[in-house]
Write a structure and sequence with these properties.
Layout (H helix, E strand, L loop, with lengths): L1 E7 L3 H11 L6 H10 L13 E6 L3 E8 L5 E8 L3 H13 L1
Antiparallel strand pairs: 1-4, 2-3, 3-4
Helix pairs in contact: 1-3
């Protein structure tokens, strides 16, 4: 299953850390560094396969795809993986709140 949405740039670290926690992955500074290095060159208008892609492997393996919106201050996200309905609802709620 796939969950899509957007978040404010200032909430990125908080959102991905919470996503990691939902699947039992321990997010750390190295993960933050990967985000900081990979996201600046992305563009939401390009195909999602060109977006920054990052695996989050816990009890469930998620693949995060993240790209900057051209208007700035917003990131679009696609979360793929073996996401059941409960996890999908949690992810959707998280994205809606941030």
């Amino acid at each position: 299953m796939q969950v899509c949405g957007w978040i404010f740039q200032d909430n990125l670290a908080k959102v991905v850390e919470y996503l990691a926690g939902l699947v039992g992955y321990s997010w750390d500074e190295l993960d933050d560094g990967a985000l900081e290095a990979g996201i600046p060159n992305t563009e939401v208008d390009l195909p999602p396969d060109t977006w920054f892609e990052y695996p989050v492997a816990g009890a469930v393996v998620l693949t995060l795809r993240i790209a900057r919106d051209h208007d700035g201050g917003i990131f679009s996200m696609i979360i793929d993986g073996e996401i059941d309905e409960v996890l999908a609802a949690r992810i959707e709620t998280l994205l809606d709140l941030h």
